[in-house]
Design a protein that fits this description.
Shape: globular
Number of helices: 17
Strand content: 15-25%
Number of strands: 22
Radius of gyration: 23 Å
Largest sheet: 5 strands, antiparallel
Strand order of the largest sheet: 1-2-5-4-13
Structural class: alpha+beta
Helix content: 25-40%
Distance between the termini: 49 Å
């Protein structure tokens, strides 16, 4: 049976409504129709099933154990303690008793069954949150620098992440009618959407706002980015604009590849929304609507040429970009522990393994953070590196927070972790992701433990080496920006990627293809030995691999950012 194309489904959806109301009411199956599974993504949820029990259910002639993942829209990743408690209640009432911090700085729930889906959406709404555009062919959750060290500037930047998110929400009222039982108006299904039209975007679109010198949002992995430029008064002078980043790829398909964004110029704050709208419009009008694997903005840029895309953006916005202004990134990680903000309040960053918050033997993290939320009067900020900032703590409250953190093992991830384990990231992968070819989140603790004796042997326990694991080449954990990365090929087999930098400004390279854990460890051991013995002071692992000639730049089209503002064109020497 052939299905309609995603483009046809969107166009004929009556503003993303489809037959979702009927499908949700159908008690016979835990699934939605093919068409509605595509549309429900725009509402912030994916249909999945438990792949661990898929074969057994098939043998029993049962349909798959259908369930839904629900993702929150939370630009900048900021939550109040009251919202935290309500999200905790949703996780324990409707989902699988865990909260998952995503690499796009928000939460997602897993394990929600269809008959609980609407109640879960309404509970999210009751927390003054929503899931609109958290998935689908639209502008996704907007990232914002998460460490509030520079209180004034970070507050401004968070506001910009919020503005970008609100500006590019779909105009359809389908979400409110389907999930919140709001009244249908006379023109329901016929609303005009000035940003997206009837067909929305060819694929997802990702935005981020960064504050140098910390690139904690991996700005160059996003379709559109704003890099804050500080004025003489310490406030926001404007933004350098980046376009064309994206991590997705497919094994064996040379037409797909990860790409870092280009820096294309500078805009004053009052022009930032206009240039973002222009980027969306160019992608909407010129992106590939035939081949979805080739439909991201990065391919539109490479097909049309960077200069042509920038010219189209400037024509749409009605002004020319100014020359980019100097900036510098020092790293793309989070700073753990306590730091003091400009206003005298303190901020504690905790490492959350793979971003999963759950109660496990010896690590009752979900309960611990619930206890903290009951007494904390600041904010919770989740980071794009799947970590958590307990922000805005008065100096006199630090001891109470520290006591709760220690009592619930939030300050020790599986003992005393290596620096590599503390900063490692992994996507969800199995058992719920339909695209996963290998384990990622469930494998990360075991793999990090296997690396620990190697690191200890060479005195590298505290070396900040960036590890990322992805269950497939689509790259949700941004593996192509890892100094070491495993990209799943098949159960127990990965591509070993090496040599990205610690600032998110250089992609890594395929080092060994389709190898097992033993082969991965065998390949890394001599590299760790050489790094320990030959590195220069403060030289990071990825930089050493390049300097020593152990890895080269990737063979696929890529852009390597040259500090501070110039990006080589394709084929140009970096």
């Amino acid at each position: 049976m052939s299905h309609p194309s995603v483009e046809d489904i969107k166009i004929n959806s009556r503003g993303l409504r489809g037959t979702l109301l009927e499908g949700l009411a159908d008690p016979v199956t835990g699934s939605l129709s093919f068409e509605d599974q595509r549309l429900v993504k725009f509402h912030g949820t994916y249909q999945q099933d438990d792949r661990d029990i898929r074969d057994e259910r098939r043998r029993q002639k049962l349909e798959p154990a259908h369930q839904f993942m629900i993702r929150i829209r939370a630009p900048g990743g900021v939550f109040t303690p009251e919202q935290w408690l309500k999200l905790d209640a949703i996780a324990t009432t409707h989902a699988n008793h865990s909260l998952r911090v995503t690499t796009r700085q928000t939460f997602q729930f897993h394990g929600v069954i269809k008959r609980e889906l609407k109640a879960t959406m309404q509970a999210i709404h009751a927390a003054a949150l929503d899931t609109i555009s958290a998935c689908g062919d639209v502008n996704r959750n907007v990232l914002g620098a998460s460490n509030p060290l520079q209180s004034r500037l970070h507050a401004e930047v968070h506001e910009w992440a919020r503005r970008l998110s609100l500006e590019f929400l779909p105009r359809t009222r389908a979400y409110y009618e389907i999930w919140l039982d709001q009244e249908k108006l006379a023109d329901s299904g016929e609303e005009e959407d000035p940003v997206y039209g009837k067909a929305y975007l060819p694929r997802k679109f990702k935005m981020a706002v960064a504050v140098p010198p910390v690139n904690d949002v991996d700005i160059f992995a996003n379709d559109f980015g704003l890099v804050a430029v500080v004025g003489d008064d310490g406030g926001l002078a404007g933004f350098n604009v980046t376009i064309g980043g994206g991590m997705g790829a497919a094994h064996g398909d040379a037409k797909t590849y990860p790409r870092l964004a280009d820096v294309i110029g500078f805009v004053a704050p009052d022009r930032a929304i206009a240039i973002a709208a222009a980027a969306l419009a160019v992608q909407r009008d010129h992106g590939d609507r035939v081949e979805r694997k080739h439909a991201r903005f990065k391919y539109t840029i490479d097909d049309l040429g960077l200069d042509a895309v920038v010219s189209k953006m400037e024509a749409h916005a009605g002004f020319h970009l100014e020359p980019a202004r100097p900036f510098h990134f020092e790293h793309n990680g989070d700073r753990f522990g306590w730091v003091e903000g400009e206003d005298g309040r303190w901020h504690l960053t905790l490492s959350l393994p793979s971003g999963r918050i759950a109660d496990r033997p010896g690590t009752p993290h979900l309960t611990g953070l619930r206890e903290i939320a009951n007494v904390h009067r600041g904010e919770f900020r989740v980071t794009a590196n799947q970590n958590l900032v307990i922000a805005g703590v008065p100096a006199g409250e630090r001891k109470r927070i520290d006591a709760l953190v220690h009592a619930h093992a939030l300050d020790r991830e599986n003992g005393a972790p290596t620096a590599l384990a503390r900063t490692a990231m992994a996507c969800v992968a199995l058992p719920t992701c339909a695209l996963a070819m290998a384990e990622a989140e469930r494998y990360l603790p075991d793999f990090a433990a296997k690396l620990e004796p190697l690191l200890d042997r060479h005195g590298l326990r505290e070396a900040p080496i960036l590890l990322r694991i992805s269950g497939c080449p689509n790259g949700c954990s941004r593996p192509y920006l890892g100094e070491i990365a495993l990209v799943g090929k098949a159960p127990g087999r990965y591509n070993l990627m090496l040599g990205a930098d610690h600032r998110g400004q250089r992609l890594n390279t395929l080092y060994r293809e389709n190898i097992t854990e033993g082969e991965i460890l065998e390949a890394l051991e001599p590299l760790f030995a050489r790094y320990a013995g030959e590195r220069e002071p403060d030289e990071r692992f990825g930089d050493f691999l390049h300097r020593a000639g152990l890895v080269a730049l990737p063979p696929y089209p890529t852009h390597v950012l040259v500090d501070p503002v110039r990006t080589p064109a394709l084929g140009e020497a970096a």
